[in-house]
Structures are given as C-alpha cells and as structure tokens.
Amino acid sequence: MTVYFGKQRQLATEKITPTHGIVLQLIRRVEGSGHKLYIDSYFSSPALCDDLLECKINTCGTVHNDRRGMPQEIRPKSMKLKKGDIVTRVKGNLSVVHWKDKHDVYLLKNMHPPPLDGNFRDECGRAIKPHVIEENNVHMGFVDKSDRMVNRYGIARRTRKWMKKLFFHLLDMTILNAYLLHKSCDGKMTHKKFHKILVCDLILQSHEANITVSDVSRGRPSSSGAQLSRLEVKHSKHWPAKGKQRHCLVCSINKKSRSRLFCCKKCDVALCVVDCFEKWHTHVRV
C-alpha cells in the first residue's frame, strides 16, 4: 500500500494522472509475472490498462464513461439502452462493455473475450448479467467484504487529522488480519468474540504494567491514589464499609485465617483495611 497525498509531482515526460502513477508504483514487484489485476473505477482508464499490459498484467474493472480514451458512442447521451442491453467496443486487446440493468455499468478489460451485443433477459424480464460482470463482482467482492469486516467493529473515530485516521485504519486492518490468521488455524471464535478477548487482554496487560510502575515517576507528580487503578475510575464505588464478620478473602488465598468486619462496598468481599484492600484492587492475581 501507499498513502495518496493528492496531486503528486510527476516527471515532465509522464502525462499520467496521480492515481495512474500510484498503480504503476504498486505493481513493480509483480510486473512481468502474468498476474491479473481487478481495479475499481477510481483507478481504471484505457491508458492504465495499456501500460499494465506492457508489464504483462491483465486488467478488469469498472470505469467512468468520461475517462480519457473511452469511446464517445457508448455514452448515455449518444446511446439509450433498454434493460438487458449489452454493447461492446473493441480496440486492440482492450474491450469496453456497456451493460444496462437498473443503472448503466461500464467495464474495461483485456483478459476476457468480449460478450456478444444484444438484449438478454430471462423469462421474468430481469436483465441477465454477463459473465465478465459476474467474475469482476466475485473478485472485487473480497475487497468489499474486507471493508465491511473492518468497519463492523472498527475503532476509528472522527478526527480532523488524517494521520490519526490512517493509524486507526491500519490498526483495524491489523486486527482483521490477526482474526483471519486465527481462522486459518482452525479457530472457532467469532469476529466479535475475537475483538472482545483482544480488548480484555490489552486491558489486563496495561493493568499489570501500571502496577509494576515505580513509585517515583518522571514528569508531573501523580495523585496519591494513582496506583489504585480500580479506585481511580469515577463512580466506581470500591470503598471500604462495615458488614458481617467474615474471613478476609486475600488472607484466605494466602492460607491465613483472619475474620474482619470490613468489606469492599462494590465487590462484596471481606478485606483487611490495611494491605489486603489495596492488594485486592491493584493486583490482577493476588
């Protein structure tokens, strides 16, 4: 991947668009190997397809009908099609397919034989989708599915700084890739559960790191209760209170028997006010 910063400087001898140049930059490692590249309308153009073919890369993808090099006669103003109509124009190895369904669809390709012109509809009057359109949808569907999975549990938030937006997107992609690796190893967790467990593990690691921080910290001095991470939370209600006579839970874990009247208001466990109360609320495992 590469980050697009808007209009980028091109060499004086290159009369290409910035998106055209980015695609040529990204395929440098695979040029000459006979790959097939599926692209969307944001990048595709006749000039790009010709350049990629010189690199032995076949292309297929939707295209805007007003791109430079597109034939004038297939535009809506020049040709009014009915539902199910297919019009094809060929120039060398490059084909343009104009298919009419609910909307006009334009496909640019040099890897499939061009479909026949005509009107193709089933018995119910529905437009029959050409094979080249179906194959393009299948391959582009993986990209669409990836975007949907990233956005389903995305952590990105609105921000005016593009660097933050990029960081959150990369983090979402990293989490998705980790989940796909988990599934490839016969993992049984759902996408949602994977996210939940990941967040819980990160919180626990951060909690343990906060406990091991030395009392003398650099920079601005912290408040006296900074190490009591559970007590720091606003309205947490983890406060000592009098209750029934019960054995201190921390002492019991350490195989000591001590009865106490004090307990944690929220946790509802008996604790010694000195030492045990702090240990219970700062140590993940006592």
Q: What profile does the largest beta sheet have?
A: 6 strands, mixed
Query: Helix tally?
Result: 8
User: What is the approximate shape?
Assistant: elongated
Taking the alpha carbons of the first and last residues, their distance comes to 46 Å
- Give the assembly state of these chains: single chain
Unreliable spans: 221-229
Radius of gyration: 31 Å
**Average pLDDT taken over every residue:** 81
Q: Which bin fits the share of residues in helices?
A: 25-40%
SSE succession: HEHEEEEEHHHHEHEH
Strand order of the main beta sheet, please? 1-2-5-4-3-6
Give a written overview of the molecule.
There is one protein chain. The protein has 286 residues and is of the alpha+beta class. It folds into three domains: 18-142, no CATH class; 153-192; 232-282, no CATH class. It contains eight helices and eight strands. The protein has helices spanning 18-26, 46-54, 131-152, 162-184, 191-211, 229-232, 249-253, 276-282; strands spanning 36-39, 58-62, 85-91, 94-100, 104-109, 118-119, 240-247, 259-264. The strands form two sheets. A six-stranded mixed β-sheet has the order 1-2-5-4-3-6, sandwiched between helices. Strands 7-8 form a two-stranded antiparallel ribbon. A hairpin with a 3-residue loop joins strand 4 (94-100) and strand 5. Helix 3 packs across helix 4. The protein is elongated and about 90 Å long. It starts with 17 loop residues before the first helix and ends with a helix. InterPro entries: PGBD, PGBD4_Znf_C. Residues 1-179 form the PiggyBac transposable element-derived protein domain. Residues 240-281 form the PiggyBac transposable element-derived protein 4 C-terminal zinc-finger domain.
